């Protein structure tokens, strides 16, 4: 299995919008109010929104390729781009998605390891993320890797208030392993 990552830039905008929308819809559409969900997707994953994020120097998107085929992506936020005001030595893994037909092939684990490596290279003390409290499979995945729960915050899909559980991974401890 030949896996590789590429740091996205504006030339990847169209593909990034497409994979962002498709993977999010596939993962969460069935569990949400259709009107709220569509409004959220059309805003959060619009070309304008993704372009602004790509242009933000504290946000980085990475494509994951399997044998030169795009199969997933992840997004890292630094400094004030993080969705929570945590200490500056942290990096947020805001998005991590694998196309459904490629799930179960350890691709998500590869991406997490890439995010960890990038975060260590940037001297972050910890990598953190928010995961929907109802996403039991993702929670198990993060806990298996070593992420520890440290809080929660509200996440809105339209008017629907949901709870994201916050997890972090101590990178200084990870480096010693």
From TrEMBL:
PROSITE patterns: GNAT (PS51186). Keywords: Acyltransferase, Transferase. Its EC number is 2.3.1.-. It holds the Pfam family Acetyltransf_1. One of its GO terms (molecular function) is acyltransferase activity. Residues 3-172 form the N-acetyltransferase domain. Gene3D superfamilies: 3.40.630.30. It comes from the Bacteria. The keyword Transmembrane helix does not apply. The keyword Acyltransferase applies. This is GNAT family N-acetyltransferase. The lineage of its organism: Bacteria, Pseudomonadati, Bacteroidota, Flavobacteriia, Flavobacteriales.
